[in-house]
Amino acid sequence: MKILFTVLLISIFPNVFLSQKIEGKFIEYKNQTVYLYKCIGVITKLVDSTIIDSNGHFYLENSSIKLKGMGYLKIGNNITISLVLGVNDIFIENEHLSNKESFLFKDEENKIYNKYIIEHKQRDNVLAGWRYLLNEYNVSKLFSNDEEETSLIRRNIEEIESEDANFINSLEDSLFVKYVLPLEKLIRDVPVSAKYLTSRIPHNIKEFRELDYSDLRLYNSGLLDDVIQSHYWLIENSGKPLDSVFIEMNKSTDFLLESLQNDEEILNEVTDYLFDLLEKHSLFKASEYLALRVLTLNSCTLKEDLAKQLETYRAMKVGNEASNILFSGHTIKNGIELQNDLTLNDLQADYKLVMFGASWCPKCVNELPKVKSLYSKWQQKGLEVVFVSLDNNEEEFLNFVNDFPWLSTCEYKQWDTRAAQDYYVFSTPSLFLLDNNNKILLRPHSIDQVNSWVEFYLK
User: Fold this and answer.
1) For every residue of 243-281, which 3-state class applies, written as one string?
2) Looking at 87-101, 273-287, 381-395, which range is the least confident one?
3) Are residues 301 and 221 in the same domain?
4) The whole model's pTM is what?
5) Which helix (H) or strand (E) holds 133?
6) Chain mean position to CA 28
7) Residues pairing with 24 in the sheet
8) N or C: which terminus of the chain carries fewer CB neighbours within 10 A?
9) d(Cα 387, Cα 217) in Å, to the nearest integer?
10) DSSP codes joined into one string, 194-258
11) In 318-407, where does DSSP find H-type helix?
12) Residue 17 CA to its chain's centroid (Å)
């Protein structure tokens, strides 16, 4: 999660607001570059920069900032400045950026946001101590009967938390911070709930599910990626059995898609981000569910690359029969060129691992030596390997596969390779474990996973 001071880029009247003016004085950082970033969906975009002059003064005026949203200022590579930009022209002054309490702002939203950040940090430090004590009283036999002290600790925690909530509730609804601060609090609550206050987990998950993911305030808040990550991380770490975790994740996916089904642009971006997040965390049942659900939505149009990425789960899911592969291109084994009328069905093996990759794929370069070290053992247990290259240069292909002891083939058509099209390949490496009838047994995500399958099933 991002832990940094954010910049609020706000415009109440986007149709008449021409530009956002940002002015400041940082004597400590004279002659350095200050960068302005704007949060857009799950990314941050550099929208402007300028040099802080010899007097420590800088001035930015950018016409691309027309909607309420979040961003931040950055100096050099390491300093993210605690800076709030409001509706009006903004001026900020501070001699030492590390001292957030000495920032001088001239607009109301800056003052409110900075005040909250300072006070919340102080409250959070105290809360951390009380929560630690509460945990010790709950788990230690020495204090297990001391209900009076435990009750006192709980009251202190509740009082401090209520101060935080009261600050937010006292804000005017028209302020953008009134929307953003509860989101930040919800995100911060996630690790606390998972570690100390597990009884709050269902409530936190409910709050995530009730968010309107098509709300432009969320899209421009700089918190969209944190919201998605925190939501699914909390479910994963809720202490439930894995099957129950996937059920809850799929429920959350349904809520999210329901919220986004009328906004194709945001749906494509969020789906792409969430799918990648689930895949990286090896939550494949959840990513498969997401893929199949999105593909059945009739109210949206998916971008071509995303649609192809998701389609692989529907067309190439475990239990389906994979297409036969005709090795019509350049086919090599142990450095020797083979005839071109071979097919995948011609291989005499109980199991087949079909790998799609290329010499230009860094992960392929790292993974294929593992295959080479395991190949002899695999082959003895009835598993054969086929490598389908997406290279487009003959010399690079031959240099890459020359000493591979398994069959390697290349049409030099990259993503237009017939087998890649038939198998809905959208990334490299892509792996498919098949039986002798080309039935898909496993969609491995690494060579280590393949080897674990061999060790478990082919004893």
Assistant:
1) HHHHHHHHHHHHHHHHHHCCCHHHHHHHHHHHHHHHHHC
2) 87-101
3) yes
4) 0.71
5) helix 108-139
6) 36
7) 58, 92
8) C
9) 47
10) HHT-GGGHHHHHHHHHTS-TT-HHHHTTT-HHHHHHHHHHHHHTSS--HHHHHHHHHHHHHHHHH
11) 362-380, 394-401
12) 33
Cα–Cα distance for residue pair 114/120, rounded to 1 Å: 10
Residue 188 is assigned to a structural domain of this protein = no
Are 292 and 370 in the same domain? no
What the block records as the tokens of 146 is: 């001391």
Indicate the number of domains in the chain.
3
* Host domain of residue 382: 330-457
Q: Could you say which of 261, 281, 315 is where a domain stops?
A: 315
> Tokens standing for 14?
């986007």
Q: Read off the pLDDT of residues 396-455 as tens digits, 9 standing for 90 and up.
A: 999 999 989 999 999 999 999 999 999 988 888 999 999 999 999 988 888 999 999 999
Half-sphere exposure of 192 (CA within 13 A, CB side): 18
Sign (positive or negative) of CA dihedral 436, 442, 443, 447: negative
- How far is residue 364's CA from residue 161's CA, in Å, rounded to a whole number? 50
Instruction: Report yes or no on 110 lying in a domain.
Output: no
DSSP state of 170: T
Please tell me whether residues 287 and 366 are part of one structural domain. no
Tell me whether strands 440-442 and 430-435 are parallel, antiparallel or unpaired: antiparallel
Are 337 and 440 in the same domain? yes
Q: How far apart are CA 458 and CA 47, in angstroms?
A: 56
Any bridge partners for residue 389, and if so which? Answer: 357, 410
Axis-axis angle for helices 284-295, 242-260 (nearest 10) = 30
Kindly state whether residues 340 and 448 are assigned to the same domain.
yes
